[in-house]
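Q: I'm writing up a methods section and want to include an example of the input and output format. Could you take the sequence below and give the corresponding predicted structure tokens, formatted cleanly so I can copy it straight into the document?
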Amino acid sequence: MKLTFWKMHGLGNDFIVLDSRKSGFVPDAATAARLSERRFGIGADQVLVLLPSERADYRMVILNADGGEVEMCGNGIRCVAVFLRQRDKSRKRRYRIETLAGIMVPELKGDRVRVDMGEPVFAPERIPVKMEEPPVNRLIEVDGNRFYFTAVSMGNPHCVIPVDAVDGVPLAQVGFRLEHHRFFPNRANVEFVETISRDHLKVRVWERGAGETLACGTGACAALAAMVKLGQADRKAVVTLPGGDLEIEWAENNRLFMTGPAAMVFQGTVEV
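A: Here is the clean output for your methods example:
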């Protein structure tokens, strides 16, 4: 069949968006991986499928570039909010979107989107991470490289590693091995974080199932939460990723808020 899709991105973290609110169509893993392939497909870090929901306004299914389904995507949910505004020509500015990580609430603020990303979780069994003690500033080793990491869940697992300079990190070499480390039974997203100042962090991300990406919303939130936990950042900071900046705030009610842009690139059709 011919499938209509929309290509979108949030700071270069790019998506194939499928509006399946009427059809209910969700591609299988092999189809999602084929569509995401950059040389023989459309090309994307993730496929986002918009569906009806009995619990919220809509439901978002997120399929990584390898075809695996994941719990949450911060840049993706900003794109979905912009998609709904443009596609439905709605004046609505706030949506409740059901994800595997819970119901997320993106709110349109001019040309930017602010999202309540929920509370960061440091309990080992809920991340999950295979250790009994709190996973804060713990040693991890891959291929002779020793790092100290803090694990946190933003609805999906993250391994946050402070470094002096993110540009010097051999991410292509160590990212996959950290993602698949025995500490993480569900694998992990990996963030290397450089402190520019207490209100400015620089981050590079290796996303679970996608590899290095230009930006990651949940990763930016996890990076701030971990660095606050380590005493190296304020609760509100700019997080600079290769694709641009996100504003992250860990509010007094313990919830993290992310603000950033999202953009439509083009619409097309593809045979599946």
